[in-house]
Design brief:
Elements: H1 6-20, E1 32-34, E2 46-47, H2 59-73, E3 76-79, E4 82-85, E5 91-96, E6 99-105, E7 113-119, E8 123-131, E9 139-142, E10 145-147, E11 153-161, E12 165-170, E13 175-179, E14 191-196, E15 199-203
Parallel strand pairs: 4-8
Antiparallel strand pairs: 1-2, 3-4, 5-6, 6-7, 7-12, 8-11, 9-10, 9-12, 13-14, 14-15
Helix pairs in contact: 1-2
Length: about 220
């Protein structure tokens, strides 16, 4: 459902890259039953069990792929005659029989994204691009010309679109994010995480732990 609140799409992206993919084994053959956030506690990876002995089945094995597929449904949406882009992985999006969007780039590994608009013939509509709330220095270019953006909103671009029009989006690459848990769990659970785009890379040790345990430092390459 369209709400106009871009931060909802921020959270969908965060959940897919960190929660859903984080519970999948690398080859996709199995999923985790226990996958707590490392910002809340230690993160033991406990594989889903065999709910029906001998069958090798578990609800996580169905719900994990389902979550990935559901995430794709939010990548781009129609809002009347307009198009809203929420997610920026490479994609070939058939809006309708006369309009196609082609997203290219290496997101989330790299920040630069190119969106090529390909209408069958010139068409006027609004293209809304999500500007993540977490990315404070996102830049947006339309056919090489800069466009102003505001983090935490959709940037609407209304124009007569022609085949070959290109929008380019360049978000920031990394940051340190603080996790401040509820007061009842302090001080033992306060942590920092390094993030690159929407991927959580690593966490700090408990800031209130003995010094010998706080030698772990976060590092981040831009």
């Amino acid at each position: 459902r369209m709400t106009g609140d871009s931060t909802i799409a921020d959270q969908i992206e965060r959940s897919v890259y960190n929660g859903v993919l984080g519970e999948m084994v690398p080859d996709g053959s199995w999923w985790m039953h226990l996958n707590p956030s490392p910002l809340c506690a230690a993160a033991p990876k406990k594989r889903a069990g065999d709910q029906i002995p001998g069958y090798g089945e578990d609800c996580c094995l169905a719900q994990g792929p389902e979550a990935l597929a559901t995430g794709a449904l939010a990548a781009a949406m129609k809002e009347g005659p307009n198009v809203v882009v929420n997610l920026y992985e490479a994609a070939d999006i058939a809006v309708d029989s006369g309009l196609q969007l082609v997203i290219t780039g290496e997101y989330p590994d790299e920040g630069a994204v190119k969106i090529a608009v390909k209408p069958a013939r010139p068409r006027e509509f609004t293209l809304k691009l999500r500007i993540p709330a977490w990315s404070k220095n996102t830049t947006l270019l339309l056919n090489g010309e800069p466009i102003s953006v505001t983090p935490g909103t959709y940037r609407p671009i209304n124009r007569l679109w022609k085949d070959g029009d290109v929008a380019r989006r360049h978000p920031c690459s990394g940051r340190i994010e603080a996790h401040r848990p509820p007061p009842r769990s302090r001080p033992a659970r306060s942590r920092l995480a390094s993030r690159r785009h929407r991927q959580a890379l690593r966490q700090s040790e408990d800031r209130h732990a003995p010094a010998a345990r706080r030698r772990h430092q976060t590092s981040l390459s831009a």
